Amino acid sequence: MIKVAPSILSADYVNLQPDIEMVDKAGAEVLHIDIMDGNFVPALSYGPGWVKAIRPITKMVLDVHMMVQNPERYVEDFAKAGADIIGVHVEATPHIHRALQMIQNAGVTPEVVINPGTPVSAIEPVLDMVGQVLVMTVNPGFGGQKFLHSTVAKIAELDAIKKAKGYDFDIEVDGGVNDQTVVDCANAGATVAVAGSYVFNADDPVSRINAVKDATK
Ligand code: DX5
Ligand code: ZN
């Protein structure tokens, strides 16, 4: 069964604590926190202060997805704020190896992220350094977009490399994930599913978390 990572991008910011406690109680293992810098992606979201504020209210794994140009600038801040996983886009820095090293040195699990237009070969040299690979299944920047099915082949490609080389990183998918689209992702080897609008833009978010899990039993 896949692990579920609700994305607070679609949560109620005024009632963030109740929303987080609800998904925690519902059995979500990971909380996905989308950092947007208005540069790598057009939107602005939130910074390390939010991670620091969220840290004491949940034991869920805090998964910080940095949609930030030159993420090296902020790795320390997010580590200090209490992130468990920090994800950096290979497209956002000429120094992906150094960025992942910085995350590792800060005592946080390093994650590398690839956009839909980026091939798996672009991250192959750093796969031995990461605890998680995030395969974007939409172009990053906004919640509520349509799942891009062409990304599924990359999940399978990563899973094959993982098995061939004996790596044990998680494979996370992000964007347009629901109880339908998650099935092919899980079959291809995804182990963590981010879900934003599917969970939070629903009358019963708890049943949506269960639906994603049940679809991958
Ligand atoms: C998109 C973000 C996602 C977003 C997913 O750029 O990285 O984490 O919150 O939202 P949904 O699940 O609605 O596509
Ligand atoms: Zn994300």
From TrEMBL:
Organism: Levilactobacillus brevis (strain ATCC 367 / BCRC 12310 / CIP 105137 / JCM 1170 / LMG 11437 / NCIMB 947 / NCTC 947)
Active site residues of this protein: 34 (proton acceptor), 174 (proton donor)
Pathway connected to this protein: Carbohydrate degradation
Catalytic activities: D-ribulose 5-phosphate = D-xylulose 5-phosphate
Enzyme class: isomerase
Lineage: Bacteria, Bacillati, Bacillota, Bacilli, Lactobacillales
Keyword set, alphabetical order: Carbohydrate metabolism, Cobalt, Isomerase, Manganese, Metal-binding, Zinc
EC number of the protein: 5.1.3.1
Recorded name of the encoding gene: rpe
GO BP of this protein: pentose catabolic process; pentose-phosphate shunt
Cofactor requirements of the protein: Fe(2+); a divalent metal cation; Mn(2+); Co(2+)
Residues binding substrate: 7, 65, 141-144, 174-176, 196-197
Family: Belongs to the ribulose-phosphate 3-epimerase family.
Gene Ontology CC terms, in alphabetical order: cytoplasm
Keyword Cell wall biogenesis/degradation: no
Function: Catalyzes the reversible epimerization of D-ribulose 5-phosphate to D-xylulose 5-phosphate.
CDD domains the UniProt entry points to: RPE
Protein name in the entry: Ribulose-phosphate 3-epimerase
